[in-house]
Amino acid sequence: MSLFDKTTSALQTSLNMRQLRHNITSSNIANAETPGYKAQKLDFEEALARSIDLDGLRGMSTTDENHYAVGGKTASVRPDIYANPEGAVNNDGNSVDLEKEMSALSENAILYKTALQLINKKMAALKYAASEGR
Asked: Which uninterrupted H or E stretch holds 81?
């Protein structure tokens, strides 16, 4: 039995991936003037949703402790990092769209803070339960 549930594990993985997305987006912004630089993109939301089975379509349970659990393996989620195919290439071969990158950085920061707040609320609930509400 684990102290942390599937939601906590997914939030932890989400924080890790959002930190990675922040690093990639920051690198894109830093290289906006570098000739020949190809903007990178990271996608992990679909893989994360599959691993936690958000829609419940693949939900399975185990009946024996020796059975393998299905779903909930968010620690094994690997993001797809690739050259952004949506970026228009400038005359110097650079494909960074500074406005889009700044927007993506802001959105990612908001989502990171939201996930962090949710983890903090879950930890506060555990602390409350552990102290028996006192």
From this structure: strand 80-83
Q: Which residue has the higher pLDDT, 30 or 59?
A: 30
How far, in whole angstroms, is CA 110 from its chain's centroid?
A: 12
* Owning domain of residue 123: 6-130
| 17 is a domain residue | yes
Q: What are phi and psi of 98, to 5 degrees?
A: -60, -40
64 close to 57: Cβ distance less than 8 angstroms? no
The answer to whether residue 1 is domain-embedded is: no
Beta-ladder partners of 40: 83
The total number of structural domains that make up the chain: 1
DSSP 2: -
pLDDT classification of 3: cutoffs 50, 70, 90: low
The answer as to whether 41 is a domain residue is: yes
Residue type, 31: N
pTM metric for this prediction: 0.72
pLDDT digits 0-9 by tens, 60-113: 555 666 554 544 455 566 777 888 888 788 889 999 999 999 999 999 999 999
User: Any idea what DSSP says for residue 5?
Assistant: -
Domain contains 126: yes
